[in-house]
TrEMBL record:
Keywords: Membrane, Transmembrane, Transmembrane helix. InterPro entries: DUF2489. Residues 16-149 form the DUF2489 domain. This is DUF2489 domain-containing protein. It comes from Colwellia psychrerythraea (Vibrio psychroerythus). It comes from the Bacteria. The keyword Transmembrane helix applies. It holds the Pfam family DUF2489. The chain crosses the membrane at residues 6-24.
Amino acid sequence: MSDFWLYALLIGVIIVIALAVYAGKLLKQLAQQKEQQAQAELAHQQALNKHDKKVFDSILLITRAMQEEQCEFDEGCWRLSVLLSSLKTLTELTEKFPGIFGLYDEIKNLSILDARKNLTKKDRMREDYQRMTALNKRHDEVVSDLDELYKFTTEQLAHLTS
């Protein structure tokens, strides 16, 4: 009978050791998976930051051109709105820059490029009037937003490059 308990104890110890080795193996796999996930998340965040840095560089260029009156406000607001909306790491910028987005919202349905060329003279004049009215209404607000956007963009670029 004592041999039976000795064998049972030996089998029990072997089973416990096997389970402990298996649990260790599983814990090691879990640690590797967590490390891979962390690396994937880091790579994803770096890709988003790289995208946003390119966008901010373009925003800075357009903002300066608008401030120096080298770019029309309607065209600049159109471009800035699209660029700001494409940022991957920031949201809710429409509230932060209401002049830029407001002007864009007022002119986004107006014809441009070839579509504008195909308009009748009367329709083109009507759209020009709508564009000028929107520009006059939002001018001061856009100028204020440009100053804020310049500061905001330089801060974001400093943050992304550090």
